[in-house]
Structure formats: C-alpha cells, structure tokens
Amino acid sequence: MIPIHLGTPQQFRAVRDFLLAAGFTAPAIAERVGATTIYDFRSLREGRPQDAAPRDRLDVLIRLFMDAEMVEWEAVRAHVPAPAVDAFTALGLLTNAPSSAAHACARVLLYPTEGGLVVSDLNADPDRSVAEPSPPDVVYPAITHNTRQFLASQSTAPCEHFLELCSGTGVAALRAARFARRAWAVDITERSTVFAEFNVRLNDLPNVTVLQGDLYEPVRGETFDRIVIHPPYVPSRDNLYVFRDGGEDGEAITRRAITELPGFLRPGGRFYCTCLATDRKDAPLERRVRDMLGATEREFDVLLVTTGDIDPLTYYAKKAASRRGTFAEIGDWYDLFQRLQVLQLVHGTLVIERHRQAKVAVTARRQVGVGVGLAGAEDWLFAWESAAASADFAGRLLAARPWASDRAEINVVLRAGDDRAWAPVKGTARTDWPFGMVVEGPPIMVALVGRCDGRTSVAEHLASFRQSGAVPPEVPDEQFLGLVKVLVSAGILGLDEFPWPPLPIAPGSA
Ligand SMILES: C[S@@+](CC[C@H](N)C(=O)[O-])C[C@H]1O[C@@H](n2cnc3c(N)ncnc32)[C@H](O)[C@@H]1O
Question: Concatenated DSSP letters for 372-428?
C-alpha cells in the first residue's frame, strides 16, 4: 500500500510553507543533531543522544520524519498549527500511531536535500509494534552516501532536456529543475513514481515530469542533453529488491542503459552513471563500455572515475561477514565470477559524452579527487585529453608554460653510485586534484616538475635539458613532450589553457 496521497495544491503549499517557516533545511538539521552534513544524520535508534522532549517545531519535525519516532499529539499540536497538521494528515504524511491514539507518527521519511524537500519510505517502524519487512519496491532514500556521490558527480551547468533514469524519489530531476529547462524522472515501479510525483508537487516544480516505465521506454522519441542514472547494481540471483538487485553480474540495468544511450543522448550531451561494475580479463570496464555503445562508439568519450575497487572473493566474504549474504554461497559466486572472468568490482561514476563534432574519442580512468564527486573535473579532462590527442598539438604544447600543482608531492628514490655519490634514480609524483593520481618517472621527471614555474615554456625546458645532456641528442622531442603530457594528464603540471576546476566544498554542508 502506498502511504502518501497526491492531495490538493493547497495542502502541498501548507506543508511546504510550514517546513520553510520551521527552518527545516539541511544545514539547520545538521547543526541541530551535531552532524557535519545531512548525509551524516544519525537517528535516535542509531544512537544519537536525545533531549527529553522536542523543544521546538524543528525538533518535532526531525523526530517524526527523520528519526521515525512516535511523538505525543499534544507536543505536535503545541508546535504545529492546526491547518498544517491537517495538511500533513491529508497528504498521508502523518497519522495516529497504531498502538496509541495519543501519539502521532510519520508514514514516510521527509527531509531536505539538494533537490529540495523529499519523501521516501520509512526505514524503521515508529511504533516498534509491527515488524514488517520492507516491500520489494521500497523507495530508496535520497540522503544516503551513495546518492550524495551520485549527485556530486554530475554537472549542474544549465541544459535543455535532463533525464533521470531509475529515479526513485526523483532527487536528481528535482535538483535539475533549477538548471534544466525541462527534466524527466523515470522509474519502473508505481510506488517510486508516486513518491517522485509527490516530491515534484511538494516542491512546486512545473518543469519536472514523472513517468513510470522500464528505462527509456516512457521517453522514446525524446532526446536529452543530460542523462543520469544511479541504477540497481548489486549482483543478485533472487532480484528481491527493485532498487538494489542488478541481475547475476550486477550490470543488467547499467548495460541496457548504456546500450540504448546512442538513441537518446544529443551531440554535446553527457551521461552520468554511478554504479558498481566489473573489470574483466583483457577488458577493463571503460573498454567494455565502448563495446556496449555499439557501432557508434567512436562518437563518444568515456571516462570512468573510481571511488574504490574490490576483488570478488573479498566482496562476498565482506557481505557474508556483515550478514548481507552467507558464507555458504561464496563458492557459487566465486564460480560465476571466474566464468565471467571478473578481475575486480569497481565502484564509481561513468561519464560518457557525445561529440559535438568529429574528433578523436577519449577513453580514460581516474580515481576520484579530493572531496565527494567530480566538481567539473570531467570538463577539464575531456577538454585536455581531446586537445592532447589532436594532430597539431605538439606546437601548442611547446609554447605552453606549465606550473607545478600546489597539491602535488614527489617522493624521490636516491641511490649511491660507484663513486659513493647519492643520485636520484626515480620519483613518484602524486596529487589529489582534479583526480587522485600517482605517476612514477625517471629523475628527469623530478627535475622538470621542480622547474615548472609558469613562466618558462616547454620549449625552453627542453632546450635547457638538451644543453645539460639530461635529454641526450638521440632522444626525440616527442619523448620529452610525452612526459609533459603524462604529467599534465595526471594533474601534476597545470596549463593556463586548461584550467582546473576550483576545489569543491562538501555538498549538503552549504
Ligand atoms: C538505487 S535506486 C536510485 C534512486 C535515486 N535515483 C537515488 O539516487 O537516490 C534505483 C532505482 O531504480 C529503479 N529501477 C530498477 N529497475 C528499473 C528499470 N528497469 N527501469 C527504471 N527504473 C528502475 C528502482 O525502482 C529504484 O527506484
């Protein structure tokens, strides 16, 4: 049974106005409960220390809609005016606790997010009397760390048509209402579709359309300049929860979303998919994505930004240890992943861009940089890698004046030579912005990074290394330029022409 009702515009306005007046915002809630951001919210059940009784309306709202606790009607009425209580009740947000008519309890979770006010299914029983399992179509909450990362990975630059597939609460489409001319949210379950429509009305967003159906099916015939998806991706044989289970290898939905993408993504458009997927023998994930794109794959750039990886055996052992699986089934999973030649499971975001005009196709993998998400790092990477792959780039690079990143550090290995004099034999350069990167290189790499001051051109560096003999005559210019390219690609060296995005502030904290 779906607990909420798509009531009247007046009821939605009454609830919205009350929540606004009560200061029901992410920073206010985080401060009230002593969390860094709303994504770190801990409910009373999860051990947050509690005051004896709600002090004000913000406390009442947190207790009802985020802690999922019963609150005495007397306390509710003391802080919430009657017309607002009526509207909460009429929309199905609030009801009598089953075990006590003197207590109110929420029928859904309700919280502020980057997308505005959002309702999703309860994650606990306020009454503690009924221990019903979650329904298979339970609506996934939008303040999880996964959804935070999903949102933080996407561009929020203005666009025309925005599509969120597997939308659940519709949180990405709700947020896109601010920067897209029109946004669509599509989910396969009726329950998620009703919740997303409820959220659209609660936030009064006339440019967001919610549709029910399988992936692209409800929007066939339409095209988009941004498509985002946080699909179900847990490898699973029983497909119990629609939000979670992604078929035997976890990739069933992701694969279909990518295979059908060419029919829906406009030139210049981007696709963002935050998921878990697999590297296979001789087929790393970003290459497999190219295969999934099919005949038109050369029209697309593909970037995989990883947040972590794990080998299949450890993954299943951890699941069993945390009681999300059993030790008995580890052998079966091992056999399956052996058969599929899976080397590791990779968590992260796939970014796919369709070229506006013909150019070399970029394929790259990086580790996420500092903070959560990408914060525009993908814009930089596509611009730089496309330019660096172009035929006439050597001249531009020779004229550029690189500087060393102030977030980079280099470890140098010294070894004593025959004359007992210590000399560098190799260096390891690292940075955490725009991506997390590690580059190992010869001593000349260490010397070059040390000399890059933003005033000296690459051509001047090369001439000076040639003069000192550090770059011998038999080494072609291209080899030196190749080293510069590697260091720029890694974010160890920066160029004026390809500025890095500013370091992100944590989303949800502002
Ligand atoms: C992990 S939740 C993501 C919800 C939301 N986008 C977020 O990030 O918080 C995955 C959602 O995918 C939906 N889903 C599963 N299979 C689908 C399909 N074939 N087509 C459309 N939606 C699907 C589920 O109902 C669920 O709401």
Answer: SS-TTHHHHHHHHHHHHTSTTHHHHHHH---EE-TT-EEEEEEEE-TTS-EEEEEEE
